[in-house]
Amino acid sequence: MKFKKINFNGYHLNLNLKDDAGLSVVNEIFKYREYRIIENIIVDTDGPIVDAGAHLGFFTIYTKCLNQNSKIFCLEPEKDNIKILKENLANNNIADVNILQMALADKSGMGNLIISHDSHNHRLSVGGAVLKTQNLDIQKINTITISDLINKYQWPHISLLKMDIEGAEKDVINSLSVHDFSKIKAIVFEYHENYNVNHGVLEKILRKNGFGVEIFPSQFDKKMGILFANNKKNK
User: Methyltransferase FkbM domain: which residues (predicted)?
Assistant: First the structure.
């Protein structure tokens, strides 16, 4: 295990990183402030924030440091990540967080999670299928759609949908109905073009559904970056 102490917005944090991937995510969030475009949304939120692909809880902790009254729903399917996520929240006195051991997807039910060699790059298999010719470590997991999540908790809207779901954002966005889009005020996600996801295609879908879109390519990997979409119809 690796631990890192950082100071952010007046909070003194001690974070269990688990591995080098954890350190990379912490640096992206707290050092390079890759999500700074949404900080005003977090501070002024009037509804739930969904942290899909919550990993070890770093984005949720970042959000709570900006607004301790924010209502956050963490979706993380991998059982070992969930354990450390809970430890990180408890060790840093982060409360009022709902943790759901499941993945955001285009269909609710069961899915196959491909386990990577690190803690951060686990991903849903494409279309729920697994290539039997590959020696893959697979976990069966629960999945849920945005529509079913909204209906489950009877939300009038989602203030912010954050996704870091290793390419599955394509399937999630393609699955959203006009009604689903109308319920979401803002979306931010890390796009991964190495998983055959063209962020330009997703940008067009979002613009067609009334969102303004901004793209922020990663300074470290040109195949990755942050996409921010603000719903101009839902103010």
Answer: 51-211
Q: Among 119, 113, 124, which residue's Cα sits nearest to residue 84?
A: 119
Strands (E), 30-185: 49-52, 72-75, 97-100, 103-104, 109-114, 123-124, 138-144, 160-163
Q: How far apart are CA 184 and CA 99, in angstroms?
A: 20
Look-up of token digits 């119809």 = 233
Residue 119 C-beta-side C-alpha neighbours within 13 Å: 26
Residue 140 has pLDDT above 50, yes or no: yes
Q: What phi-psi label fits residue 139: left (phi over 0), alpha (psi between -120 and 50 degrees) or beta?
A: beta
Nearest-angstrom CA–CA distance, 114 and 78: 10
Q: Predicted confidence band at 21 (pLDDT cuts at 50, 70, 90)?
A: confident
State the pLDDT confidence band at 128, using cuts at 50, 70 and 90: very low
Provide the sign of the torsion angle of the four alpha carbons 151, 154, 159, 160, taken in this order: negative
Q: 3-231 — its CATH code?
A: 3.40.50.150
**133 exposure class (CB count in 10 Å sphere: 0-12, 13-18, 19+):** exposed
Encode 63-97: b = buried (16+ Cβ within 10 Å), e = exposed: bbbbbeebbbbbbbbbeebbebbbebbeebebeeb
For the beta carbon of residue 158, count every other beta carbon within 10 angstroms: 24
Reduced to 3 states (helix: H, G, I; strand: E, B; else coil), residue 17 is coil
Distance CA 132, CA 64 (A): 42
Give me the residue spans of the domains in the chain.
3-231
pLDDT score at 159? 98
